[in-house]
C-alpha cells in the first residue's frame, strides 16, 4: 500500500509539453550594458525563483492564456530587452548584458499537472513539491553566459495556472523583478505601452569597470552550500502575520520610545527584531553566542545622486549588524529594533561608496556562509505589490519563492494575501529549530 508521501509525490507529477523562445516584437539590433559593482557579487548566487499561482478554469482557455502571455511578453521585452539577452564579457573581461536580435530570447516552458489543485499548492509550506513548477533549480547566475536570463514555466493545473519564473540575479534585484512583472501584466491587460519604462543605464549608478576571472566550478552547488554532507536539514514554512498581529508587534516594540530622539520603529524594523529574537530562542543559542542580522537594502534613494525607482539592475547592498544573543533576547523588543534601525540609517551614500571601493579593490563573490554566524537574513520586501500582478484573469492566490538561494536563517517577506499591513514570512531553518519556532506562542502572536 502506498504511503502518504508516495501518494503526494504521485499527485504532484508535472509533465513538460513544450518549450519556445520569445523575443521582442521589434528588431532592436545589438545592445550592450556593462554590469557594475552592485551586480557582480551575485554571479555565484542561483537564479532567483518566483512562483505565482492563479485560480480559474483552465480546461478550455489554457492555450489562450499562454498565447496572451507570450504576446504580452514579446511587447514588454521591447522596453526590458535585457531580459532577452545573455551574459557576456568585453575584450577586457568585464561582464556585461549582451542583447542581439539573433539570440534565443526568453525561454517559455509549457507544462501540465492536472492532478494538482490551487489549494494543494497554497497549503504547501515547503518548497519540495513546488520545485517542478519553477525552472532552473540549482542553476548558477554565471550560467547566463549560455542560458536565457529569464525562464518562465506555465503549468496547467486542475483548476488554475502556475507561473514559475527564474530570473538571473546578476542582472536584476527584487525591485526590478516586480517592475518587470507588473509591466508585463499591464500589457497583457490591454495597455499599449509600459507606464514606467525601465531606466537601463547602469554606469550612472557606478561607473567602475571591474574585471572578474570567473568560470563555472566543477560542482556549482559547492560554491554556495559548502560541503553538502555536513549541511543541516533545512525545512521551510510560511508564517502569515495578520494586520492585527503586525500592529501588535509594532505597538509592543514602540512601547518605550527612545529618549535620544530616534524615530519610532518602522513596521519592518519591528517585525525583523521580533523574528530575530524568536529564531535565536528556537536555535537554543547561548547568551554569549553572537548572532548576525542581514538585510539586502534597496539603495536607489541612498546613493548620490539618487537613482529612480525604475533603475533596472541590482541596486541593493547587504547591511550587516551583530549582537550577543543574551542582549537581544533578554532585553525588550526595542533593543533589537534599535540595533537594526541604527545599521540601516548608517548605510548612507558615503557608506555605500566605501563598501563599493573596498569590494572593487579586492572583488569577492558572495557565498551564503558570508551572511554571518547564527544569521537571520531578509530578502524580498512586503512593499512589493506582488498581489497586483494581474494578467487579466484576477490576482494571484499565492506568491512564493522557489528552492534556490535558501540557507539556514533566510527569510523572504511578502505582502499578505489579505492585504492591508498583513505580511507573509517564508523562513528556512534547521528542522529542530523550526519545530521549536512553530510551538512558540509568543512568536505566532495571538490576537
Q: Layout of helices and strands, plus pairs?
A:
Elements: H1 4-11, E1 15-22, E2 31-34, E3 48-55, H2 62-76, E4 86-89, E5 95-99, E6 106-113, H3 118-123, E7 150-157, E8 160-167, H4 174-188, H5 220-225, E9 234-241, H6 243-253, H7 267-282, E10 290-298, E11 316-324, H8 325-330, H9 333-346, H10 349-361, E12 376-379, E13 398-401, E14 410-415, E15 423-430, H11 431-438, H12 441-444
Parallel strand pairs: 6-7, 10-12, 12-14
Antiparallel strand pairs: 1-6, 2-5, 3-8, 3-13, 4-5, 7-8, 9-15, 10-11, 14-15
Organism: Manihot esculenta
Pfam family, one: Transferase
GO molecular function: acyltransferase activity, transferring groups other than amino-acyl groups
Distance between the termini: 43 Å
CATH topology description of the largest domain: Chloramphenicol Acetyltransferase
What does the main sheet amount to?
6 strands, mixed
What are the low-pLDDT stretches, counting only 5+ consecutive residues below 50? 1-11, 218-229
* Number of structural domains: 2
Please tell me about this protein's structure.
This is BAHD acyltransferase. It comes from Manihot esculenta. InterPro entries: CAT-like_dom_sf, Sec_Metabolite_Acyltrans. Pfam families: Transferase. Belongs to the plant acyltransferase family. There is one protein chain. The chain has 447 residues and is an alpha+beta fold. It has two domains: 15-204, Chloramphenicol acetyltransferase-like domain (Chloramphenicol Acetyltransferase, 2-Layer Sandwich); 234-439, Chloramphenicol acetyltransferase-like domain (Chloramphenicol Acetyltransferase), CATH 3.30.559.10. It is built from twelve helices and 15 strands. The protein has helices at 4-11, 62-76, 118-123, 174-188, 220-225, 243-253, 267-282, 325-330, 333-346, 349-361, 431-438, 441-444, and strands spanning 15-22, 31-34, 48-55, 86-89, 95-99, 106-113, 150-157, 160-167, 234-241, 290-298, 316-324, 376-379, 398-401, 410-415, 423-430. The strands form three sheets. It has a six-stranded mixed β-sheet. A hairpin with a 5-residue loop joins β4 (86-89) and β5 (95-99). α2 packs across α4 (174-188) and α7 crosses α9. It starts with a helix and ends with a helix.
Amino acid at each position: 500500500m502506498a504511503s502518504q508521501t508516495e501518494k503526494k509525490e504521485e499527485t504532484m507529477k508535472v509533465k513538460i509539453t513544450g518549450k519556445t523562445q520569445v523575443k521582442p516584437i521589434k528588431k532592436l539590433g545589438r545592445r550592450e550594458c556593462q554590469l557594475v559593482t552592485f551586480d557582480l557579487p551575485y554571479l555565484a548566487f542561483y537564479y532567483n525563483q518566483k512562483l505565482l499561482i492563479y485560480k480559474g478554469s483552465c480546461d478550455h482557455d489554457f492555450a489562450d492564456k499562454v498565447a496572451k502571455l507570450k504576446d504580452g511578453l514579446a511587447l514588454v521585452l521591447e522596453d526590458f530587452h535585457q531580459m532577452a539577452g545573455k551574459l557576456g564579457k568585453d575584450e577586457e573581461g568585464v561582464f556585461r548584458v549582451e542583447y542581439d536580435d539573433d539570440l534565443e530570447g526568453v525561454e517559455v516552458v509549457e507544462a501540465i499537472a492536472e492532478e494538482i489543485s490551487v489549494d494543494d499548492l497554497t497549503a504547501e509550506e515547503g518548497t519540495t513539491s513546488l520545485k517542478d513548477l519553477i525552472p532552473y533549480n540549482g542553476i548558477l547566475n554565471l550560467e547566463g553566459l549560455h542560458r536565457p536570463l529569464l525562464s518562465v514555466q506555465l503549468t496547467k493545473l486542475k483548476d488554475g495556472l502556475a507561473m514559475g519564473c527564474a530570473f538571473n540575479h546578476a542582472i536584476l534585484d527584487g525591485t526590478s523583478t516586480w517592475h518587470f512583472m507588473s509591466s508585463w501584466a499591464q500589457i497583457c491587460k490591454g495597455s499599449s505601452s509600459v507606464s514606467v519604462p525601465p531606466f537601463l543605464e547602469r554606469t550612472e549608478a557606478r561607473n567602475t569597470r571591474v574585471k572578474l576571472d570567473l568560470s563555472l566550478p566543477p560542482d556549482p552547488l559547492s560554491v554556495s552550500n559548502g560541503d553538502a554532507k555536513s549541511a543541516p536539514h533545512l525545512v521551510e514554512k510560511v508564517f502569515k502575520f495578520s494586520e492585527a498581529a503586525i500592529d501588535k508587534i509594532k505597538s509592543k516594540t514602540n512601547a518605550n520610545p527612545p529618549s535620544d530622539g530616534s524615530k519610532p520603529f518602522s513596521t519592518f524594523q519591528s517585525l525583523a527584531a521580533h523574528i530575530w529574537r524568536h529564531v535565536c530562542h528556537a536555535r537554543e543559542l547561548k547568551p554569549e553566542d553572537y548572532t548576525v542580522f542581514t538585510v539586502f537594502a534597496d539603495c536607489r534613494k541612498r546613493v548620490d545622486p539618487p537613482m529612480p525607482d525604475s533603475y533596472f539592475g541590482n541596486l541593493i547592498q547587504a547591511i550587516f549588524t551583530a549582537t550577543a544573543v543574551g542582549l537581544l533576547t533578554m532585553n525588550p523588543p526595542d533593543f533589537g529594533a534599535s540595533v537594526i534601525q541604527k545599521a540601516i540609517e548608517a548605510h548612507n551614500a558615503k557608506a555605500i561608496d566605501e563598501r563599493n571601493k573596498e569590494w572593487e579593490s579586492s572583488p569577492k563573490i558572495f557565498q551564503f556562509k558570508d551572511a554571518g554566524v547564527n544569521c537571520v537574513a531578509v530578502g524580498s520586501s512586503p512593499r512589493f505589490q506582488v498581489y497586483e500582478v494581474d494578467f487579466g484573469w484576477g490576482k494571484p492566490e499565492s506568491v512564493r519563492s522557489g528552492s534556490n538561494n535558501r540557507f539556514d536563517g533566510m527569510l523572504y517577506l511578502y505582502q499578505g494575501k489579505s492585504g492591508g499591513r498583513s505580511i507573509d514570512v517564508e523562513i528556512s531553518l534547521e528542522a529542530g529549530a523550526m519545530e521549536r519556532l512553530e510551538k512558540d506562542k509568543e512568536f505566532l502572536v495571538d490576537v
